[in-house]
Every structure is written in C-alpha cells, then in structure tokens.
Amino acid sequence: VARRHDGRQLIMKIVSLLGDQRIEVVDRPTPEPAADEVLIRTAVSAICGSEMNGYRGKGSARDNSGHEGAGIVTAVGGDVTELKVGDRVGISAVVGCGHCEQCAAGRYTWCPNNRGTANVHAEYFTHTARGCHLLPDDVAWDAGVLITGDGLGVPFHTSSRLAERPYGTVAVFGLGPVGLGAVMLQSHLGRTVVGVDLSEARLQLATELGAAATVRVTPDQDIPAAVREALGGVAPEVCIEAAGVPATAKLCFTTVRTGGRVVFNGEQGPLELSPSADFIRRDISAHGAWFYHFNEYPQMLDLARGGLEPARLVTHRFTIDDAQEAYRAMAAGLTGKVLLTYS
Ligand SMILES: [Zn+2]
Ligand SMILES: [Zn+2]
Questions:
Q1: What does the DSSP assignment read for 163-197?
Q2: How far is the CA of 322 from the centre of ligand 2 (A)?
Q3: pLDDT less than 70: residues of the chain
Q4: How far apart are CA 172 and CA 180, in angstroms?
Q5: pTM of the entire predicted model
Q6: Contact 103, 289 (CB under 8 A)
Q7: Distance from residue 178's CA to the centre of ligand 1 (Å)
Q8: Which one-letter DSSP state was computed for residue 113?
Q9: Which pLDDT tens digit goes with each residue over 168-213?
Q10: Would strands 68-76 and 37-47 be described as parallel, antiparallel, or unpaired?
Q11: Side-chain half-sphere exposure of 274, counting CA atoms within 13 A
C-alpha cells in the first residue's frame, strides 16, 4: 500500500453500492479532512436497514450510504481542537450547524441545518469533529459503533422520549435491528416486552435479547388478541412501530391499550389514520423518534458499562472484502446488526 510521508495511505478500499443488489469493493484516494474535520481509520462499520433501498434499487449517490462507524483519528483539520491523532471515536451520523440554539443544547437532529453522512464503509472516512464521540478505552469497537450509531441510538432516544410517562408493557412490531434494539433496551429497563414479526429467526433473537413473549404474524391471525394473550390478557401500554409498513402501523393502533402510546421508528410514506377511531375515542397518543440526541451519548455509555452489552445485537460480521455477502445477509431479513471489519 502506498503511503505518504506522514504514514497515511494514499489509496484505500471502499464499498460501492452499484444498485440492483450489486456491490463492489473499489480503490479510491484516501480523503483529506477539511478544516473542521478529522480523518478516521475505520475499525468497524455497521450496515443500517435504511441502506437496503439503495442496495436493492439505484445504488448510492456516493460510493455507499454507510453512516455508522468507529475508528482511530489519524489526521485532524486545521481548526480542530477537540480531537487529536490517536483518539478512538464513534460518529454521530447527523451533525448540526454547530451554532444554533439546538446545537448548543446537543440536539443535532433538531438543528434546521443538520446534515447526514455517508461513505463510512471504507478503510478511511472523514467526519466533522463536533460530530465525533470519544470512545473510552474500556469500550470495545463493537459496542462503540452501536452506542454512537443507529444500533443503540435509536432505541435509546425512543426510550428517553417514552420515559416522560411511566409504563410497564411494550409491544415491538418489526424485529429488524432497530426493533431488536428496542426489545433489548426495554427489557433491560425492566419492561415486559412482546416482539412481533413474520420471521421465526428474528422472534428467536428477540427472545434471546429479553422479550418475555413473541407473536409470529401469520395470515388471518388476530394479532391484537395474540399480543394481549402474551401479556396475560392486557393490551400493551406502548406499541413501537419498527417495520416501516403501513399495515403494521395500523396494527400498533389497534393493539395498544386505551390511553396508550404509539411510537414511529420505521420510516414510511403517507398512512391513513382516523382521528376519531385511532386517537380520540381511546385517548391514544402517537409520536416519532428519530436517531438520537448528541447529548444522549454519556447516558448510553453508562448503560453499556452498567451491563446492557449492546454488542449482543450483532449477529453477523464480515471483512470489507466480503461486503457483498454482508449486504446479502442483511437484505435477507434474518439478521440482527451486521458489521464490516477492517484489517
Ligand atoms: Zn441509519
Ligand atoms: Zn444547528
């Protein structure tokens, strides 16, 4: 591998999403950090469910849409003071402008000028320094990428929004990585969790991650009744929609207890809901929860150090050279979190 005088690689491998489920690992020049950025040598990156659209469809506008990664800082831009070469970091995929009221409060996702990142599935990537979280030495890479990425971030933010009111029972609809993360975290926090999915493999994972019961979705089944039965005859106080499917969202409303709450985690288009039937007559509240607040990181770190073990969400691991296999496994819909590793 060609190197510059400071030891950095000139050329690196990067995953390129070509569309139609085709992946190539190609050589590209190693990027240079801008003044407010750092260059990170990737230790591990995670594939997010949101990447499946590009994988199955048109590919990625950049080489890849990877946005969950952790590694070691190998160069810093001229204006960077908060990080130095050698620091272990994980990244927040959403970075705010850095000078509005929301950014000052540590809420990049609420910044009107926030932006997302990509191209993290590569041997090196650049990231805005203020969007990096320092990983203490006792936090392993796998845990680090989950705590700073969607893996634990989405379930944690969802949970912190729900914590505004006490509850003891949760049904999680859709047991992809985000749904499984919710199962793991809600169980860890002492709630009784029912996992709902089509896939037997994912129901099994939910059980391993702490679900008290699972319900397999089959045609003609009365899902709300099955969930109530799993909870000893009562409906759940909270339903989390993590499938991103209109029919599943409707199911959350028909399943949730009167006076209960529905949370949207799964991205989806317009959905037909009735103010009268779905909200008013049963005092139902619904809200969304997107990614996580930058300032929630210390709390997630505490959870990871307090026995949560976020790496239990990882079911598959591939080297960057086997990225095609990694995407194929993720797209098959039977995995928890899928990681790419770098030598
Ligand atoms: Zn994501
Ligand atoms: Zn801002």
A1: TTS---EEEEE--SHHHHHHHHHHHHTT-EEEEEE
A2: 38
A3: 1-2, 5
A4: 8
A5: 0.95
A6: no
A7: 9
A8: T
A9: 999 999 999 999 999 999 999 999 999 999 999 999 999 999 999 9
A10: antiparallel
A11: 6
